[in-house]
What we know:
31% of the residues lie in helices and 32% in strands. It is α+β, with helices and mostly antiparallel strands. β12 (184-190) and β13 (198-203) form a beta hairpin. Belongs to the MHC class II family.
Amino acid sequence: MKEVELLKCTRRTKERRYRRKAATADAHGSNSISGCSDTDGEAVMILDDEAVWYADFNKQTGIYPLPPFVDPITFPGQYEQAVADQQVCRQNLKTTRQAMKDVPKELDPPSSMIIYTVLNLELRVQNTLICHVTGFYPAPVNITWTKNEQKVTEGASTSVPFPNKDGSFKQTSRLDFIPKQGDVYSCTVEHVALMQPMTKFYAVENSDLILGPAMFCGVGLTVGVLGVAAGIFLLIRGTE
Length: 240
């Protein structure tokens, strides 16, 4: 299946999924997350296990991450409320630290980290690398990318931390790239509970994508030549 056809198929699947959700209102589940640290903060609105809005405190605005074919959901005044909640959260954090100064902090390093592509690998065709990290506490992790040992920021984006059922968090980073033979990408994760960063590598080394069609044609040609040779041999034997 061509890339465009695959993307269309994926989009139709998502559209059907969202239509099913809209048709079964009683199956909806909503949730919200608000948290803070000394240097970071988080405010996320969740519907049916998907983030429908989150606050980007660096850009000072609210973000709607759902794809464009989903009926828009707006939260007027939610960003301003999130900013106010952060002030309250940091004050509560200060009070909690004073009250629990002798209680050790709970720190869990990531339990799993994987790197993979969104589409089947095809050389010189744009694709997306996914770096998925889960099982850590507290949030967030810091995720960085490299290409051939050089740091890459263009085409990279990282989601907000998302809670697991056990109270830990998961987070995903994406990198748009065009696969070229011999390129090596890496995803590095830093977390307060890690003694040293975790790194996973992805090497573009799939020679079958280049040699496959040529080898197939070569085999077909060989079979054809053998067939002609066998025919000539049988013809000669028949004339004898």
